Structures are given as C-alpha cells and as structure tokens.
Amino acid sequence: MNVTTNSSGSGPVYTDLSIPVRRRAPGVQFEQWLHREGIGILSRRIRALPGDSRRDRIVNYLRWLSGSRRLREQDVPGGCFLSNEFYRMSVHQGTHVDAPFHYGPTCEGKPAKKVMDLPLEWFCGPGIVLDVRECQGTVTERDVKEGLRRSGAQPGPGTVVLFRTDSDLRLGSPAYYTESTAISPGAVDHLLDLGVKVLGTDCWSFDGPARAMVEKFFGTRDSSALWPAHMHGREREFIQIEGLGGLRNVPEGPFTFMAFPIALADAGAAWCRAVARTDS
Hints:
Helices cover 24% and strands 21% of the residues. With 280 residues, it is of the alpha/beta class.
C-alpha cells in the first residue's frame, strides 16, 4: 500500500503516504467500463459528443437510430476500446486535504478559504513525523513539545508536521473509526505559533472517534465536545491532511513532504496523493 520507490537505484527516494480508495470501501460507489464492453457504451454515447451543436445532436441521433453511426468490435483496434472508471464518493474519502471552508463559513473573521484558494506552496516543504502512539487517545500541547524535544526537530514556517499513530494498520476494520487518536486544539495552537500551517494525521479524522464525541455531548450537552479540532479552524487558519498511511515507512533524516489537493472548485476538501521525498 505504501511503497518506497526509487526506479533508478540512486537519487531521491519517494515514499507513498496515501491510502488508496478501494472500490468496495464504505461510502464509495464504483462503476467500470472494461475494454470489451466499452465499445457498446461508446457507441451509444457518440450520439452526442462534447461541443456538438443542437443540430449535430439531432442528426447524429438519427444516424445512430439508422445504424450508420454505431461502433462494433471490428471497428476498434484490437477489438476493444479504452477502460473508464467512475467513483462517486465524499471529498473526505481516503487521503485528503481539509480546507478552512470545511470547518465553517469564516476563519479568523474572514471568508474561509476553499480548496482552490489554498496556496500550492503550502503543500510542499520540510516534513516532520511526530510519534504520538503513546498519547492515550488525545495529543496535547505537552505531547507535541515532548515529541519535538525527542526528535530534535525545529518546525517553522513552511514545515509540515505529521502525527504518527499507526491507525492506518486498522484500516478495513471498525477499529479504524472507533480507536483513532484526536489532536487537541492546544496541540494545534503550539505548532501554529511556531509558524506551521499544514498538519497531517494517519487517523481518519483530526478529532477522535465520532461515537465518543457524540456520546460525550449527549452526556454533558457541552458543544465543545463536538469536533473540537475542526471547530478550532474557525478561529485560526490551518490545513488538515487526514487519512495518511505508512508514516512509519518514512526513512530517518530530513525529508520533503508533498501533497497537492485535486483542483475541485467550490469544495471544502479534496483528495490528494501524499508523498515523502528523501534525498539519499
């Protein structure tokens, strides 16, 4: 799933930190045209092609009805056409970037940024992996300070900080959602104060298990129990990358983190391919 690749045998090493979206994952609807069946589907679809005028559409539809504008296996090289896949899913499926608009309509008193408003340079910079596997369910400011002290890392503007919990090892089981580790607003604030803008986690969410948050709310009626890290993004601007994988595979030493969000207009989040580049 998360493979370190170096095709030339020398030079930079690239480690994939993304979780692939599976066709049978919860919340995913998948359709695929395979090469043979794609011919029949294309034959129906060419009745109207992008850019056709209304007249073109009528004429081509009549030609299709008559059989003169239909494709057969013998019309296509090798008797098969191209494959095509369709995924219908939330922008929060798999490894993805949360923009401030996801947290709320405003951030720091201004309209919150959507995906296309985010500067691309935020998503490529020095990376730091903080091992927070022993944090008992919630990463606090103290945990962050201790993690930075142990690692000797000194984050600053442009640094991307990634929280390693190894939650991705539970991917595919209910425990992936019920045993995740929350990142507290205090932990976020400490890193923001150092100039960090982009944070990532290998959990499904920056906040803890949804069931635990909801049950805590109904037990206390305290609204601060509900998605506190996300809600904090209304007060201070920062980016969350959720659903990372394989942070344990990042080689020792300095690395560059890259994870550009897909260009989705009017979206508060977008899928991304997260990669760590290590110079050998």
